[in-house]
Amino acid sequence: MTRWWPVWMAPTGLLKNENSSCVNTVSSYRSLSLMIEYGRNAGGFRRILLLALLISSNLTGTIGACPLELPTICLSIKGHDLVVELAATPQSRACGLSRRSALDENHGMLFVYSRPGPRTFWMKDTWIPLSIAFLDESGNIINIEKMPPDQTGKRYHSRQPALYALEVNQGWFGLHGIKAGDKVKINADIIIGSPD
Question: What is the DSSP string of 22-46?
């Protein structure tokens, strides 16, 4: 039987990947309806569904409120763990990693969309050099781009429709031998939902 747990109420043990030292952590969002599916047939990116988006009272400010405090989950690429913040609302995706002076080692941000499409990013107000990987709906890396900090003239595009984008410190992918075609594995199934 599949079980659904609101993330802020999920027992801590359910959020830890037993094969990894990476632990999913979630901030105390009262109204963010982020749920993790646990069941026998859980299968990573194949089972990620974006049903609808709910902007919590914590996320209703202006873009000037960046950076936002977001929930985190763990990803794995070729055996390398990565703790990522989830940017799954329009505001959190617009803020991204802007206005931050640093990004911890082995950390990043996963941008989640409701359906695959062409994705374009830029580095306005982003002060740290980043690399971005665009992912298809199965979690396969489409392409990786290096993005210099704080520039607005250049845009970075997915070469095919992407459902996800993953930003990390610049050079992280190369350091770990990660390239286009590699698969990103998520250590929890995500459903971000809201009432109609």
Answer: -B------SS--EEEEESTT--GGG
